[in-house]
């Protein structure tokens, strides 16, 4: 299990969103309030953000817990952005992928994160692997369920699907292949945010200076609204649209 957050709005320091709030993503790494599986998110973290007039997002990822990286705290104090995606990775079985397994994953100007789990991984999704071209499988950043889900989403995006269809289609095919999967996906290109709820919590906040979509609220602002399960969320700087996500066909 993981926690993640995406933001669009007036430029702010990374730390204002990720470190300073009373229930920041940093605190959620060791004391999540709405997480239903696992108790600590200490197997790495990452943040991707856009600089002004640059279409390619920068990323900072580490295999260590976010609370143990003083270099990131210093960077987050001064780096400002109007769009970001950040995540803390749930504690998992030992692996050799290191920071490559930490979201956000990136390609073609997109940032992506997965909050959840896929039962029976990797065997349960072996049939879906056959649907991807070999070069795309070989390009996986890590041997994790999240990295594979990103490959499925990216394949759909490159085939022309809009982001909401790419996420919804991926969720349905994975849920059919691995019943019981938890598939909260988060995707942004720096202008819009698209997300799914499938088995775990998600909330959104829309204000005059920002739109935020997060696994759980980082403060007690009454403008936070929960997103119902089985939903596709599409957000911009001006608002949020919620669409029911259909179950896979029997």
Written description of the protein model:
It holds the Pfam family GATase_4. It catalyses: gamma-L-glutamyl-hercynylcysteine S-oxide + H2O = S-(hercyn-2-yl)-L-cysteine S-oxide + L-glutamate. The protein has 250 residues and is an alpha+beta fold. The chain has one domain (3-244): Aminohydrolase, N-terminal nucleophile (Ntn) domain (Glutamine Phosphoribosylpyrophosphate, subunit 1, domain 1, 4-Layer Sandwich). 22% of the residues lie in helices and 30% in strands. The chain is built from seven helices and 13 strands. The strands form two sheets. Strands 3-2-4-1-10-9-11 form a seven-stranded antiparallel beta sheet. A six-stranded antiparallel beta sheet has the order 5-6-7-8-12-13, with helices on one face. A hairpin with a 4-residue loop joins β7 (182-188) and β8 (193-197). α6 (145-158) packs across α7 (163-177). The longest helix has 15 residues, at 163-177. The radius of gyration is 17 Å and the shape is globular. The model has no long low-confidence stretch (mean pLDDT 94).
Chain-wise SSE layout:
Layout: E1 3-13, H1 14-18, H2 25-28, E2 45-49, E3 58-62, H3 70-78, E4 80-88, E5 105-107, E6 110-117, H4 126-129, H5 134-138, H6 145-158, H7 163-177, E7 182-188, E8 193-197, E9 203-206, E10 210-214, E11 225-226, E12 231-236, E13 239-244
Helix pairs in contact: 6-7
Largest sheet: 7 strands, antiparallel
Number of helices: 7
| The CATH topology | Glutamine Phosphoribosylpyrophosphate, subunit 1, domain 1
- What fraction, in percent, of the residue positions are helical? 10-25%
**What count of domains describes the coordinates?**
1
Rg is 17 Å
Strand order within the widest beta sheet: 3-2-4-1-10-9-11
Second-tier CATH architecture: 4-Layer Sandwich
Mean pLDDT: 94
Low-confidence sequence ranges? none
CATH class category name:
Alpha Beta
The sequence of SSEs as H and E is: EHHEEHEEEHHHHEEEEEEE
| Beta-strand residue fraction | 25-35%
At the fourth CATH level, what is the homologous superfamily? Aminohydrolase, N-terminal nucleophile (Ntn) domain
DSSP strand count: 13
**C-alpha geometry:** globular
Query: What class do helices, strands and sheet pairing give?
Result: alpha+beta
The first-to-last residue Cα distance is 27 Å
Subunit arrangement of the protein? single chain
């Amino acid at each position: 299990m993981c926690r993640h957050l995406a933001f669009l709005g007036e430029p702010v320091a990374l730390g204002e969103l990720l470190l300073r709030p009373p229930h920041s993503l940093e605190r959620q790494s060791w004391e999540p309030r709405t997480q239903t599986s696992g108790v600590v998110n200490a197997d790495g973290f990452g943040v991707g953000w856009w600089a002004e007039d640059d279409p390619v997002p920068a990323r900072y990822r580490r295999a260590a817990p976010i609370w143990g990286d003083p270099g990131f705290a210093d960077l987050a104090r001064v780096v400002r952005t109007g769009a970001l995606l950040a995540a803390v990775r749930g504690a998992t079985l030992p692996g050799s992928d290191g920071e490559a397994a930490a979201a956000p994953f990136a390609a073609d100007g997109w940032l992506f994160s997965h909050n959840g789990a896929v039962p029976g991984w990797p065997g349960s999704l072996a049939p879906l692997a056959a649907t991807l071209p070999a070069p795309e499988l070989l390009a996986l950043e890590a041997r994790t369920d999240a990295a594979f889900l990103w490959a499925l989403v990216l394949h759909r995006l490159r085939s022309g699907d809009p982001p909401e269809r790419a996420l919804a289609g991926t969720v349905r095919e994975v849920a059919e292949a691995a019943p019981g999967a938890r598939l909260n996906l988060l995707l942004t290109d720096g202008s819009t945010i698209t997300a799914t709820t499938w088995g775990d919590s998600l909330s959104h906040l829309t204000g005059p200076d920002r739109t935020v979509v997060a696994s759980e609220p980082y403060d007690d602002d009454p403008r936070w609204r929960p997103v119902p399960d089985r939903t596709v969320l599409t957000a911009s700087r001006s608002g949020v649209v919620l669409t029911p996500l259909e179950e896979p066909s029997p």
